[in-house]
Amino acid sequence: MCFYDQQIFVCGDHKWGRFRAHCNKEYRTGETCGMKLIFEASRVASKCQMCKKYEVTWRKIAQAKERVARWEAEGINPVSTDKEKVNIVAWQKELKEIEMQRQSRMRTV
Ligand SMILES: [Zn+2]
């Protein structure tokens, strides 16, 4: 068990920061063990990278879907429509990956 700074974001997620101190057990070896303990926690007035990325991607999907719906209704831009649909699928995959990361993170906390 070693001590680290921790940043807590408004979304409730946290990020480990600087290494601060060894625990007694690891002190002799000079190595850090896998277990992290909070040395000092600070609150950050923003969302974490993961949630920010999630929001940005989510917005991109919403906008792309809107465009596709409009193009299809007007019967224009078939090539762009196909391209945009491919993008949407890729972005949705990204969202799923972020969600999975978030869930696996929660389990380890
Ligand atoms: Zn977050």
TrEMBL record:
Protein name: Uncharacterized protein
Organism: Tuber borchii (White truffle)
